[in-house]
Amino acid sequence: MKKVIIINGPNLNLLGKREPEIYGAQTFENYFDSLVEQYPQVSLSYFQSNHEGVLIDKLHEVGFDYDGVILNGGAYTHTSIAIADAIGAISTPVVEVHISNVHAREAFRHHSYFSEKCVGVIVGMGLKGYELGLQGLLDR
Ligand code: DQA
Fold first, then answer.
1. Amino acid 131: pLDDT
2. Domain 2-139 in CATH: superfamily?
3. What is the distance in A from the centroid of ligand 1 to the CA of 104?
4. Domains of the chain: which residue ranges?
């Protein structure tokens, strides 16, 4: 069975409560449960942290063993060379996901340190982006 982990970064624990006009009204736990039901053939797990180093530790932990990582690094996407280096250091393919269309928002959200290290990038498709990322990983 393929092992894929979804890793969410800072403030994404507040999905459902946080700026619902941008990020929607569904909690991630609720969405994740439906994804698990939809993909019984995949061993799917979920991890969230608000801390840069903890996200790096998690990438190191899964990054030589899992079949895929779906990463929404939140604002660290736009700031963290350290997380970008971790993505480059591991052998597991990483898909970058953003719920909102970062290119239609503030200029500081237009640049990602992660994209060049990732096998693909999905932006602006809401929570559905995680499923699209999963599908992309499984089809590779
Ligand atoms: C986000 C976009 C980032 O710019 C922002 O800092 C987030 C969420 C998204 O999923 O749309 O926290 O990654």
1. 98
2. Dehydroquinase, class II (3.40.50.9100)
3. 12
4. 2-139
Report d(CA 81, CA 84) in Å as an integer: 5
- Residue-by-residue pLDDT tens, the chain, 140 positions: 999 999 999 999 999 999 999 999 999 999 999 999 999 999 999 999 999 999 999 999 999 999 999 999 999 999 999 999 999 999 999 999 999 999 999 999 999 999 999 999 999 999 999 999 999 999 99
From ligand 1's centre to the CA of 84, what distance in Å?
Answer: 16
Give residue 3 CA to ligand 1 midpoint distance, Å: 25
- For the CA of 23, the nearest atom of ligand 1: 11
Task: Give the binding-site residues of ligand 1, using a 6 Å CB cut-off.
Answer: 11, 72, 74-75, 77, 98-100, 102, 109
d(CA 5, CA 44): 6
Sequence-ordered list of residues with C-beta below 8 angstroms from that of 55, at least 6 positions apart, any chain: 7, 9, 49, 73, 76, 83, 86
**Dist. CA 37–CA 71, nearest whole Å:** 20
Ligand 1 nearest atom to the CA of residue 100, by list position: 11
